[in-house]
Design goal:
CATH architecture: 3-Layer(aba) Sandwich
Strand content: 25-35%
Order of helices and strands: HHEEHEHEHEEEEE
Structural class: alpha/beta
Largest sheet: 7 strands, mixed
Number of strands: 9
CATH class: Alpha Beta
Strand order of the largest sheet: 5-4-3-6-7-8-9
Mean pLDDT: 95
Radius of gyration: 17 Å
Number of domains: 1
CATH topology: Rossmann fold
Amino acid sequence: MNLEYARSQMLRQQIRAWEVLDDQVLGIMGRIPREAFVPEAFRELAFADLEIPLGNGQQMMTPKIEGRLLQSLRLLPVDRVLEIGTGSGFLTACLANLAETVVSVEVFPEFTDSARAKLESLGTSNVELSTADALRLEYADEFDAIALTASLPELDEYFIRMLRPGGRLFAVVGREPIMEARLITRHANGEWTQQSLFETVIKSLLNIEVREPFAL
């Protein structure tokens, strides 16, 4: 496989075509070797418009959703970012190249270990990796941005409270077959607003209580 050709095709046919036009985001997604973060058995699919299996029933986001996530957060070099779901570590690497510091939380220790080795091989030093249940975190008013890589059945204030005033949260909310990617912004008065970005379906956050919708 011609890696550079496949990478350029991914950027042009998938990511740009999905309205990711931020030059900085495109540059980083083109520079970080996505193929290095894909499991060996799926290496030839590294640039495909597919969710790539990672094990433990988890999947790597498609490149276009990763691009929209990164663009929507509008990260600055001084930002402190929380990533929920380290997964392969590719998105972690992208976030680390856009922000000052990234705290990435993963429930599967083998994902944490694998991502750490890959990030270290790239010389990425501004990432703090930890293995923990994302629903038992005790952060408050600490992050400028949060990237949630699994869906929530409903939006509540649990993650929003971890944002500083002006902070942004990317979250996919809903139940199959209809979910919506949203950008939530917390304001100085403690209130928050949300913007609908696009429709998609991704796996739900582990250990979250999914209540059945009320039916008459």
